[in-house]
Amino acid sequence: MDEEYDAIVLGTGLTECILSGLLSVDGKKVLHMDRNDYYGGESASLNLTQLYRKFRPDATAPTDIGRDRDYALDQIPKFIFASGGMTDLLVHTDVTRYLEFKQISGSYVYRDGKVNKVPSTEMEALRSPLMGLFEKRRARNFFVYVQNWREDDPATHQGLDLKKVPMKDVYAKFGLEPGTQDFIGHAMALYLHDEYKEQPAKETVLRIVQYSQSMARYGKSPYIYPMYGLGELPQAFSRLSAVYGGTYMLDKHVDEVLTDPATGKFIGVRSGEETVKAKLVIGDPSYFGAGEMKEGQKVRVMEEGMVVRAICILKHPIPGTEDVDSLQIIIPQNQVNRQNDIYIALLSHHQGVCAQGVYVAIVSTVVETSVPEKELAPGLALLGPIFDKFVQVSPLYTPTTTGVEDQIFITRSYDATSHLETVVADVRDVWQRVTGEPLKLEKKVVEVQE
After folding, report:
1. For the CA atoms of 109, 111, 116, 118, what is the dihedral angle to 10 degrees?
2. Among 56, 284, 346, 413, whose Cα sits 20 to 30 Å from the Cα of 128?
3. pLDDT digit string, tens, across residues 330-365
4. What is the span of the domain harbouring residue 189?
């Protein structure tokens, strides 16, 4: 491997594959390596055999719930906003030509012991048990304010400077009850906890607008999802990179990230007896001291918490949800005396991720105690009888340096949120650190001959 590259990318998680694709489109010579023999890393979708091999190496997958090839089970469940940052990325890069999408059938919120649909139309809002009659009027006034708000038009501000005023003051102005604040903040603005109420309100208002725009795009719910699992996304961006000249090496172990002893700057990567050189490296935290520390290796990542996820195989839809084939349920933290929300994502054969008659529910939250699985209990209790369950606790890693000084750029672990907007934020952050320029998605990428 005597060639020198502009960039080496380590790991084929979604974040890394998007960055690899964008760099290749930008004319950079990219080498992409992964220790696994499949695309997707943590964001890969597993078939039945792979699932059992990962969680129960000594067991064999059951034969009475369909064929191996019927399954594409996400390890990290996330949906795509119909009008969000990931949709912009998909359209800009034109990788939509490699993908097919399905709409998620419903968005639900847990309140006072019951699961309620988040209203998707004005008629649904009027019938919704989430609010009483007078509260519905107050909420309507709030949503009219949010939809009409324009940063550059003081006439729409109603005396509130959203760049300074905390969200709790906005709620107070419209007289919204705590339960309504719960469903707005957690089921629409999708915050994991209530700290956002103390922050300037602008970010929350923009999130609510994004949710509403995504809901308006297709109705039913604000989310879409790729057919055959989330693992299709990293593969699509890898294909984009390859079309623009990117080189891929799967099943390639990385033994050492090499730096210049004099300057500390990145110079290359060693795999066994082979060394490959490049100007910079981008990679997921597991290649830089997270989990697989090499002796003498500089620690470049820190753990900032953990996420617990349970992949549950069901033989029925979730009770009390009108038997929809796919959904999200958010359990706001203060409904179950927690500091962080619990998320449930349900998928079925309509999304091409499991056999007909089977449903897959993934329950996840941020770990708060020494018994993570017990923290999922409120979510698991909503599922009805569970055919099988696979629990995984994953550390959340974040880089300790920007990477600008040593040209070693590290991405973040996938968090507990139920959407891909935080992945897009990480892509934008790394792109700015690598190039010194913000990521612009103005023009659509021009298709090249494959």
Report:
1. -40
2. 346
3. 999 999 999 999 999 999 999 999 999 999 999 999
4. 121-218
